[in-house]
Amino acid sequence: MEGEMLGVEEVVILVAKIVKAEEGQTETEVALEEEMKATQEEMVTVEIKVTAEMKVIKQMKAVMKVKRSLFSNFLGDRLVKRAEEVLSTINPLKDALSNFGADKQGKSFISSAMDSAEGIITNKFPKDKPNSFVTGLEGHYTLAKKLTIGTAENKQTFQSGTRLYWAVRWDYDPVKGPHVNAMFSGKPGTCKFAYNLDKSKFLEGDEGGKKAMLDIAQDLNKQCKYSMAKNMGKDKPEWDTTEEQAMEDLKNHFKTVGDGPCT
Is the pTM of this model over 0.90? Predict the structure, then answer.
């Protein structure tokens, strides 16, 4: 009824309802605040993880960029600087070995370079007759002075102290005929040469220099006591002497030719 006053008991019940309603609202607000706080913390954690992952990805991209650059330089060096320089000469082996240079008194480094030989090279082709004959030597030689060899794209300058990989070997193909392949590789690049045996050195009727190449191969085998008949087609060469002695004999042969007269 309008204007009618509530009894004490009714007032108590009403107040209790109001308090309960306020407490319920407060609990809901607290719950919402805690949920929002947890969400914010989770977002911060995710952001930190994403930032860290982006940093890793950025570092990986930088590494890949460097690797691509190095590979590009490596490939470029192989494709451009290793362009083979082809020359015709009456003494291919001597001219190939002359790339080792000489000291200030004019004494060649061929002898000391040959002492750095680490292995004998044998033929790989034809595929059904590998190791039929000895072709050359390879090794690593530490330069005693700055060395500049080659021309144009094949030109390289190696500084004193450079550990130079070298390989000098006889080879044959129908276009070049008998020739000596020479490779010198170290910082900053690689030089490759093919010294073709001048056709004036071919015997009459020796089409393409095949007979000349056979004579050269037989002489190399003889120098280090290597049997063509015993080794033809074998996976690994066998020596009539020790491999160490065979290498010494071939090194001495290369020294004799390298420091000998032009013939």
Answer: no
- List the alpha helices (DSSP H) in the chain: 8-76, 92-97, 110-114, 210-223, 228-231, 243-259
Across 183-199, average pLDDT: 96
Range in 66-75, 139-148, 252-261 the model is least confident about: 66-75
Q: Is 141 exposed, middle or buried (0-12, 13-18, 19+ CB in 10 A)?
A: buried
Domain holding 68, by residue range, is 7-81
Domain count, the chain: 2
Amino acid at 84: E
Q: What CA–CA distance (Å, rounded) separates 181 from 166?
A: 10
Q: Is the pLDDT of residue 135 over 90?
A: yes
The secondary structure of residue 195, as a DSSP letter, is E
Give the Cα separation of 251 and 256 in Å (integer): 9
As a whole number of angstroms, the distance between CA 120 and CA 136 comes to: 6
Which tokens sit at 213?
């190449």
- Window from 100-104, 110-114, 121-125, 211-215 with minimum mean pLDDT: 121-125
Q: Pick from 35, 65, 81: which residue ends a domain?
A: 81
Same domain, 73 and 198: no
